[in-house]
């Protein structure tokens, strides 16, 4: 009989030469279990998705209830579907008044695409500015916002009229001008290996956009939904975006993204042309039901978000090793900086052997990513840190011994 693993390599398209190829049978809380019932701590939450852990009962129940009623009905935006309406309403209650209208899509990259179109349509401008070494998705429009030629060169030509500025560099804000439709930045930068905005950078960015009439789009696809210690990361920086991007944890483990703006701005999609943005499966009822359940838990069980900083501090206290160059974090999204990718890769493989899943960053392969489910307990944090530190120490000792031997 042909094994699942064999079928995986034969028929599932891979995007790297060395996929982890773990055969996952089930999941619960912070743990994944393979076909041999070996447990793995998911220290990256499926890359920022499973913020309430795996198989959360409220989310599973919501999926079961909705799937027993109806699945897909008609192209998004035509029928009044309760999961969509309730989710959009609850989201509006938690956001400033200017962010009252939600367009549901399937993913983060589609949220980026929608925001880019909306900014162009609403302002009548074409220029879009993003940060260097920023990641907003890999469809051709979202990829156009990337500055790194390694990832973009094979797919050119991409969108024209894209400019890139240095995040946290105030002088670059002058490049935002009256030709700019929007500036798209991550509130907290993730794929560079965690970079928080310095001082009043985001306020100055907001002011510059106001001066020239450009829209400010904040990408909280990775850092929204409680990850940084507030429901939305921008709440910590004293500004409000014109458009907010959400996905990953927003869907509660189901595929769902969104871009949120004012009702006036969203109205632009209804004319010249009508159907200015359209998606067949965006806002799928089951995805919205899961997202609604997840979002309710975050809003009602306030201790989950309130404890984020305390848990992050515990990680920082326990993750001490002479090989760690720097530990950067905003809430429970963290980067451990090391001297080389080779070192990081060996640590990740050692962790995997001992039942812990972690990763590096797209634009910083010399750093280890830590972004556990927000529901992780102190005991589980200690378990995860013990595995990680032991892995780091083993690789470090082996490298030190090899250097001495040479």
List the helices and strands and how they pair.
Blueprint (H helix, E strand, L loop, with lengths): L3 H8 L12 E5 L2 E4 L4 E4 L2 H4 L8 H11 L14 H13 L6 E5 L2 H16 L3 E5 L8 H4 L5 H4 L9 E4 L14 E7 L14 H12 L2 E5 L23 E4 L10 E5 L1 H4 L18 H16 L2 H4 L1 H11 L7 E4 L4 E4 L3 H13 L2 E2 L1 E3 L2 E7 L7 H28 L1
Parallel strand pairs: 3-13, 5-6, 5-7, 7-8, 8-9
Antiparallel strand pairs: 1-2, 2-3, 4-10, 9-10, 11-12, 12-15, 14-15
Helix pairs in contact: 3-10, 4-10, 12-14, 13-14
Explain how this protein is built.
The protein folds into 2 domains: 4-57 and 303-405, Aspartate Aminotransferase, domain 1; 70-300, 3-Layer(aba) Sandwich (Aspartate Aminotransferase, domain 2), CATH 3.40.640. It has 406 residues and is α/β, with parallel strands linked by helices. The chain has helices at residues 4-11, 45-48, 57-67, 82-94, 108-123, 140-143, 149-152, 201-212, 263-266, 285-300, 303-306, 308-318, 341-353, 378-405, and strands spanning 24-28, 31-34, 39-42, 101-105, 127-131, 162-165, 180-186, 215-219, 243-246, 257-261, 326-329, 334-337, 356-357, 359-361, 364-370. The protein is globular, with a radius of gyration of 22 Å. A 7-stranded mixed β-sheet has the order 4-10-9-8-7-5-6, sandwiched between helices. The longest helix has 28 residues, at 378-405. 46% of the residues are buried. It contains 14 helices and 15 strands. The protein starts with a helix and ends with a helix.
